[in-house]
Amino acid sequence: MTPDISDVTRAKHGRPVHHWRRDVIELAALFTAVAVADAVANVIGHGPDGTALLGISAAVLVATAGFHTWWARRHGHAPPETDTGTRPTDAAAREAGSTGESTEAPEAGATVLWRMRTTVKDEPGSLAALCTALAQRRVDILSLQTHPLAEGTVDEFLLRVPAALAASDLTHAVSRAGGRGTWIERADAHDLVDAPTRVLGLATRTALDAAELPLALRQLLGRCTIRSLPATSPTSGRAQESAPVEGALEDTVMRLRAPEGGVITVERPYLPFTPTEFARARALVELDARLGPRIPHSQDVLTLPEGNAITVRRADVSDVEAAKAMQQRCSPRTLSMRYHGPVGDADRYLNHLLSPRFGRTLAVQTASGRVVGLGHLLWDGDETEIALLVEDEWQRRGIGAELLGRLVTMAVEAGCESVYAVTQASNTGMVAAMRGLGLPLDYQIEEGTLVITARLDAAAVAASQLSHDAPCGERE
């Protein structure tokens, strides 16, 4: 952002620049002051209470001068009135904070990575002018992608910029070179991977696990909110709004047809989507639809302290009947603590909860194959929810803690910044399991329920030994 001209001292050849307008204004102010003084003198001299009014005015002036002297001595650290040195304005400080810039002097030769997107006219020489402006400021262009549009061309850059160059100066230079609608944010080493390689990697993750699709879309499109809606409402059973087969792109919102007939909505209010981004996202969704339902088939066999062997594995909609049977064996109190509503409605949510489209689910089953516990990691827009249900007979054996630790590890691997659990204060088992994570926790009461949020940090998770080094029992 260019500082306002009123915030700096304009000078020419080292001397202040004077203008005749300023002199005229000063003379007018002087004549006005003389006229006001004459009017006041006439009031005091010819009025009935002129002497008393003059004495009161003198007392007020003396009191004001004394207060000013006391205040100046007490606040002697304030800058003197004659100091004309330039200082960062509040707006500049806020801008530096919002872009992650440090107010400390950077080291000589230090550089930072920025991702920048700007729109230029679709005519010869426009991109060259932009690159020339960047080169004049010693900015290195590491990668460049162009997205032709009807009203111009969107150019997306990955830049290595001298640390001494502020983001506001960079965007100002781009604007002077013809760029408009410029957006910029800090980048990291992961952005050094070229776009085709990154897209292929995301496609591989999606092919191995259907639950990876929302995460792949988020990594492909940056900071955005992704919501998956089923074709029918899990509560009313009525059909919900669907998207066209080919999808729909509306500026900052794209709607894609989900493989099971629902709709995937992706929203990024701060930056419109380009047709190229829309095509890449639609290709990932089409790949997911062609491959069909799938989850990794890995499983771990654990031995509880009592000697019982259990298996922890991924679950999906094929486990709906087993999950319903487990819920029928659970007490009404256990179900009410899990679903926070009528116990009879519990079965309606299972298709949604077990679908890989909306998150990941872990199941705990006995040696006979009976499911006795479920743990869900659910994508809730740009937040992530954790939910547990353990059959009454198998509670207080460490199964809940085992599931919770695995779900948190999966959330860290997915790049989630936090997870939250909705429970009741009387659910001491869930509260104890969350506290047992050893992570920073926030507690909040909402409509009679307790919401516990755990802030995730890779180092903190590793320190709390959530790598499953036999927290529940021996492994086979």
Strand content: 25-35%
- CATH-defined topology of the largest domain: Aminopeptidase
The helix content, as a percent range, equals: 25-40%
Distance, first to last CA: 62 Å
Walk across the major sheet and give the strand order.
15-14-13-12-11-19
Q: Sketch the major β-sheet.
A: 6 strands, antiparallel
* Tally of alpha and pi helices: 14
* SS elements, strand count: 19
Q: How many structural domains in the coordinates?
A: 3
Low-confidence parts = 1-19, 71-103, 465-471
Computed over alpha carbons, the radius of gyration is: 33 Å
Structural class by secondary-structure content: alpha+beta
Mean pLDDT, as a whole number?
Answer: 75
| C-alpha geometry | extended
CATH homologous group name of the largest domain: Gcn5-related N-acetyltransferase (GNAT)
Structure characterization notes:
The protein is an alpha+beta fold and 476 residues long. It has 3 domains: 110-192, Alpha-Beta Plaits, CATH 3.30.70; 195-291, no CATH class; 299-475, Aminopeptidase (3-Layer(aba) Sandwich). Helix content is 37%, strand content 25%. The chain contains 14 helices and 19 strands. Strands 15-14-13-12-11-19 form a 6-stranded antiparallel sheet, with helices on both faces. The protein has a 4-stranded antiparallel sheet with strand order 4-5-3-6, with helices on one face. Strand 1 and strand 2 (15-16) form a beta hairpin. Helix 1 (20-46) packs across helix 2. The longest helix has 27 residues, at 20-46. It is extended and about 105 Å long. The two termini are 62 Å apart. Mean pLDDT is 75; it is low at 1-19, 71-103 and 465-471. Residues 75-109 are annotated as: Disordered. GO terms for molecular function: acyltransferase activity, transferring groups other than amino-acyl groups. Its EC number is 2.3.1.-.
